Amino acid sequence: MSILEKHRATLEHHETKMGPSRGRLAVALDLLTDALALVGQHGVYCRSERQPGRPKMDVALVLEQLDDAKQLVQSAMAELRADADRR
Fold it and tell me: For residue 61, what are the contacts with CB-CB under 8 A and spacing of at least 6?
């Protein structure tokens, strides 16, 4: 099953409201947010022995990468919105 089929209803909803590009970015942002929440929840149980109160290094790195990807998607959405406003 392709990603477009898997998230068809959500994509249709967002693409109708925002257009194809921004709608797909919005769905990607939702997926990244959900992944961040799941990995963050996992980090609660996988604590570092060297740094109590912090997640293990691999969990921390995954959280960082997901957050970076989310920020890139947000910046792309802002750029698309700015381009649309300039027209």
Answer: none
